[in-house]
Amino acid sequence: MVKATTNKRKKTISADQFKQAYIEEVLTTGTNPASVFAFAKALKSNEQEFYQYFNSFRAIERSIWADWLSNTVEGIESDEAYAEYSVREKLLAFYYTWLETLKSNRSFVLKRFEETPKTDATPYFLEQLKGVFEEYIHELILEGKDTTEIQERPFTNQYTKAFWLHFLFITRFWANDDSHEFEKTDAAIEKSVNLAFDLVGKGPLDSIIDFAKFMFQQR
């Protein structure tokens, strides 16, 4: 009698499982995994399976942060009330939701920002996230122009860069905040967003620009 043989197929590791295992490895050992080979082997997987999703550990980390931001944007935009918000209120909702997203991975966030110089305007792990953020903020700026919450000025095309620096400021502020329930961060978000819209909205600066244009035309 011939014995039947069964081929056991190895369980496939998903991209999300690789990401979670990566975070746990970094936090447990205090450093990045030694190699893709060792990392995949510990998950009973292999390099080939890892490389189906990511080409390096830097790539897996970029994807982790970009996912967090994408989930934030999808979360707020799925709320029916969000559509009725002013642009200022939408940005406030974005920041509060973004930091709620980070709370479940605070140890990982702290580690990365502790290792990153404050002068680095685009840390490598935020490179993919930055694209998601810029797409989101670009739409807000266009909406703000339509609602006149944001004024068209000669340097309006620089607003996206300014909001990116603001995003970094808020995220770093939260990472350094040790106040009860992050109440200092809540205040920083509200005050800085209000200031930002006071600056990009119609105000004394527009009167100065209009007057300067007038005087130039009189030459």
Q: Can you walk me through this structure?
A:
- The protein has ten helices and no strands.
- The protein has helices at residues 15-29, 36-42, 47-51, 57-77, 87-103, 106-114, 127-146, 159-176, 183-200, 204-217.
- The chain has 219 residues and is mainly α.
- Helix content is 66%, strand content 0%.
- The longest helix has 21 residues, at 57-77.
- The model is unreliable at 1-9 (pLDDT under 50).
- α4 crosses α5 and α8 (159-176) runs antiparallel to α9 (183-200).
- The chain folds into two domains: 9-55, Arc Repressor Mutant, subunit A, CATH 1.10.10; 61-217, Tetracycline Repressor, domain 2, CATH 1.10.357.
SSE order, as H and E?
A: HHHHHHHHHH
Q: Give the overall shape, derived from the CA principal axes.
A: elongated
Major sheet details: none
Which class do the helix and strand fractions yield?
mainly alpha
Approximately how much beta-strand content do the residues carry?
under 5%
The amount of helix comes to: 55-70%
Rg on CA atoms, Å = 23 Å
CATH topology of the largest domain: Tetracycline Repressor, domain 2
Give the end-to-end Cα distance, rounded to a whole number of Å: 106 Å
- The CATH architecture assignment of the largest domain turns out to be Orthogonal Bundle
- Average pLDDT works out at 91
Count of discrete alpha- or pi-helical segments spanning 4 or more residues: 10
Uncertain segments are 1-9
Counting copies of identical and different chains, the oligomeric state is: single chain
Number-wise, the strands total: 0
List the domain count as a whole number.
Answer: 2
Q: What CATH first level of the largest domain would be assigned?
A: Mainly Alpha
